[in-house]
Structure formats: structure tokens, C-alpha cells
Amino acid sequence: MLTRGGFGISAYKIGQNYIIVQFSDGATYVYDYQSTSAEHVEEMKVLAQMGEGLNSYIKGVVNKC
Hints:
Blueprint: E1 2-3, E2 9-14, E3 18-23, E4 28-32, H1 38-50, H2 54-60
Antiparallel strand pairs: 1-2, 2-3, 3-4
């Protein structure tokens, strides 16, 4: 996993059709095309690489789906 300083997220790993996110509380979640949608996974990848907005996107968009 790549460690990243974003608020609420301590690490992430990007795969071809998934992203694994480890939150600051230690919880780890796998978001993939099947469970989350390709659109959301691809947006999460972009936000993770930018180093900001991923936690907000997950809480505000993905968790409400």
C-alpha cells in the first residue's frame, strides 16, 4: 500500500479495477467495479493520486449508493 497523508486515510493501493483504502482508524475496504461501479472506482483513483478529496468522496458519494 502507498502511504498518503490525506485526512482520514492512511494508505491506499490501486489495481486495474479496484482501489483498497485503509482509513486512519485501521479499517480497510476494497472498492471494485462490481461492488462500487467503475465510475466511482476511477474517480477514487484520481482523488487518491491527487492526495486530497478521497475521504470526502467516499463519505459523501460512495457510501450513499
